[in-house]
Automatic annotation (TrEMBL):
Keyword annotations of the record: Membrane, Transmembrane, Transmembrane helix
UniProt KW Transmembrane helix keyword: yes
Transmembrane segments: 28-48, 60-78, 90-110, 116-133
InterPro entries found in the cross-reference section: EamA_dom, EmrE-like
EamA domain mapped to chain residues: 2-133
The name this protein goes by in its record: EamA domain-containing protein
The keyword Lipid metabolism belongs to this UniProt entry's keyword annotation: no
GO cellular component assignments: membrane
Length: 136
């Protein structure tokens, strides 16, 4: 849970920088700079803290696909932030929408159980997205 709280703080700060960077005219260039910075940070932390190499091709492919989808997410989020109603609406919708999709995919693809608590969370998330968009 400790690392989750750190990640929540970091993603909030990251989203502020994401919004500020969205003022650049070309979202492809913005995404390139964003991803190169992330790659540089990742390489540095890898060499400082790990240096382990794993030989599990299937999981490596999943990591590559995850990286590609994060890069695509970043590109479209920069575009949404540069043309959308503002960070206070766009970023929560991106995050809540992503979480809702993850829950659905977890149930359909990973065969996870849908609990009452998760279902209620999805309902409240949907209401939240509606309220954010209906106010603008």
């Amino acid at each position: 849970m400790f690392y989750s709280l750190i990640a929540i703080g970091i993603v909030g700060i990251s989203d502020i920088f994401r919004k500020l960077a969205s003022n650049l005219k070309d979202p492809f260039f913005t995404n390139l700079v964003f991803q190169l910075s992330a790659t540089t940070f990742t390489i540095i932390t890898y060499f400082i803290f790990s240096r382990k190499v794993e030989n599990n091709p299937k999981d490596i492919v999943f990591a590559i696909l995850g990286g590609i989808t994060i890069a695509a997410f970043s590109l479209f989020s920069f575009k949404a932030l540069s043309t959308g109603p503002g960070a206070s609406v766009v970023i929560p919708v991106l995050r809540i929408g992503g979480i809702a999709l993850l829950v659905v995919l977890g149930i359909v693809v990973l065969k996870e159980k849908l609990s009452l608590q998760t279902f209620i969370g999805l309902i409240f998330s949907s209401i939240g997205i509606y309220l954010l968009f209906s106010n603008k």
